[in-house]
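Two proteins were folded this term; both appear here.
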Amino acid sequence: MTTSTATAGQLSTSAAEIYDAFFVPALFGAWAGPLCDAAGIAKGNRVLDVACGTGATTREAARRAGDAGHVTGIDRNDGMISVARSHGDGITWEEGRAEELPFPPESFDIVLCQFGLMFFDDRVAALGEMRRVLRPGGRIALSVWDRAANSPGYAAMIALIEEMFGADAAGALRAPFVLGDLTAFSEVLEAGGLGGARVTTPTGTARFASIRDWVRTDVRGWTLSEFIDDAGFEALVAAAEQRLSRFVDADGSVRFPAPAHVALWSKGPEPD
C-alpha cells in the first residue's frame, strides 16, 4: 500500500510544532487518558507508544507507569519526534516505522497506538509487530476516529475544503477517518491478529478557541499547506466563519462531537 505525504499524515517540524500547540489540546490530549485507562497501565509497566506524534499519550503513559516503569515513544516522522524530545521528561524517543519495530520480542507489557493505524503503509504488518513485541498477558490498546459523518464539524469542514480547493485537499483532511467504518476497522484488526478485540466508541469533543484557530490547526498543523497558500487560508477562514457558525459558542469558541473507536486486545499465554 502506498500513500501520499498528505494522506500519510507526515508533517514538517514547523507543522509538528503547530500540531503540538493546537491539535493536542483541541483533540488528542483529551484522548490520552481514556486510552491509558483502557490499557490498564500500572506502576512499573514497560509501555510502547506506536506513532506517538509529539507525545501526548506517551507522557500520560509515563505518568502512570511511574519511576519503576519505562515508556518508549516511536514515530516515523522526524518533525514529530523532534518536538516530542523537546519536552525532555525521561521518556525514550525513537524514530522508526510501525511495520519494523526495532525491539526484541516480548519487550513490553502494554502497546498503545492513538490515531496512528490509519496512516501506516501496511496496517496488518504494523499490528503483527505490535503483537510480536508484546509479552504474553500484555495488552494492546489503540484508537481510530469514527466516520467523518459522525463528527459533524469535520464533515462540514471537509465539504467546504472540497468545494474551495478540490478533492485532493479534502482527501488529506478525510484521511484520519478512513477506518471509521466499524466493519473495515474490525477487518483490519482480524487480519493483523487482533481478532476478538473489544471495541467501544466513546464520544469526545473537539474544541478550538475560534474558527480561525480551527482552520489554522487543520491547514498549518496538518498536511494541507501543500494545497492551501496564505491567500487560500484567509479565504477559508472567511468562508468558515460564515458557513460553519453553527459550531461556534457565544464566546466565539468552537465545539463539536468527535467520536472514536477504541480497541483493546490481550495476548494470551504462549501454547505449550
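Next, the second protein.
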Amino acid sequence: MNKSGQIILVLISVLFSTFQTFVEHDRFFTLDFIIFTAIAWVVGWQYDRTRYYGKQARASEESYKQLIDSLPKSIFIHHNNKIIYANQATVTMLGAASMNDLIDKSLYDFILPEYKERLTERLKQVKRGKLPLINIEYKATRLDGNLFFFEGSSMWITFEGKNAVLSIGNDITDRKEQTEQLLQKSEKLALLGQMAAGIAHEIRNPLTSIRGFIQLFKVEKHQDEYYDIVLSELDRINNIVGEFLVLAKPTAAVFAEKEVKELIKDVVTLINTQSILSNVQIFVEFESNLPKISCEENQLKQVFLNLIKNAIEAMPSGGTIDVKVKEKEKEKGKISIQIIDQGVGIPKERIPTLGEPFYTTKEKGTGLGLMTCYKIIESHNGELIISSKVNEGTTIEVLLPTITQPVFILA
C-alpha cells in the first residue's frame, strides 16, 4: 500500500512546527506538534488506505468489465430499467454500432408490448431475491426493427457504487425456428401415418367385397349383378387412390385467365342430372361485371363439383341450393362464391375438424374430397369458409383473388 498521503501530512506538520520555531522562536517539540503529527499520521494512513481500496475496486471493476466483454453470451447491466453497461455480444444482438448506442436506453424500448408485463414482474422478483432467477423468454426488437427471441436470467448486483440488475442470456431465434420445423415434420409424419391407416382401411372394405363375389363366381354362373357390384367397388378404390394422389403428388398447374361465371355454369350443367334425381333445385345468381380470376380451370371445377355434390347429399329429402357469385364489397380484389344449402347442417364443434383426412359424416366417405378442396383453394391464394346450423343448412364461401388488385395510396 502506498503511504504517500501519510508522509505528506506528517511533513506538513513538521514544516509548520519548523516555521513557528524560526519565526516565533517557539520550541520545536511541543504538545501541539505531537498531537498534530499524530493526527496527520492517522488521517494520512486512512487516506492511503481508502485510496488503495478505491484503486483495487476500480481495477476489480475493469477486470469485471473485461470478463463480461470476453463472454460469448449477451450480458447487460441496467439501473432503473435503463442500460448502463453492455458487452459486445449484446451490442451485436441488438444491432447497435457500439455500446454508446445502447446506454440510457430503456429495456421497454426493446420488448414487444405483449411481453412488457412479464418484464415488469421479472424485475420485481429480482429485487426481492439475491440469487439468479431461472431463464425466461421474451420477444424483442433490434434497433433496425427486426424481431428476435431472447431467453435469459437476471440477478441483483452492485455496479459502480449503485444497485443494479445484471441480465445474461442468448438470442434463441434460430433454436425456436428449428424446434418449429421439427414440430411441423412431426405433425406431417403423424398425418402421413393417419392417412396411410385410413387408406388401408378404406381400400380393404371394397377388396373384401370383391374377394367374396369372386368366390361366388366359382359357384354360380350368369350372375350379372355381381359384375356390376365388383366394378362399382373397383371404381370406389380408384376414386380413393385418385383423391389421395391429388393431395400427395405436387402438380405443376398452369394458371390462366378465366371467367368465374363460365366455370360455375359448366359445373352446374355437369351435376344438374344428379340434382334432379335427388329432388334438388340449383339456383345461380351472378353479379354483373365480375372481374376475371387467374386459375387452373379443372382444379376449380373439381372444387365446385365436390362442394355442390356435398350440398346435394346433405339434403336427402330434397330442397334448394343457392349459388351466389359476387365481388366482395369490403374486401376489394376478391370474388365470393357462396354455396348455400338447406341440409341437415353440421354441429358447431365439428366445423374445425372439416378438411381432416378420413373425417366425414358420410357412410362411405373418406374426407379426402374436402381436404382436396382446401388444398386447391390454398394453391389459388384463396380461402374456404364454412358456416352451418344444425337442421337449417350450411353455407360454404370460397374467396378467390381477382386478376386486378386494388392499389392502396398512403397519405
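Residues 17 and 33 are 6 Å apart (CA to CA). Residues 407-411 have pLDDT under 50 and may be disordered. These notes refer to the second protein only.
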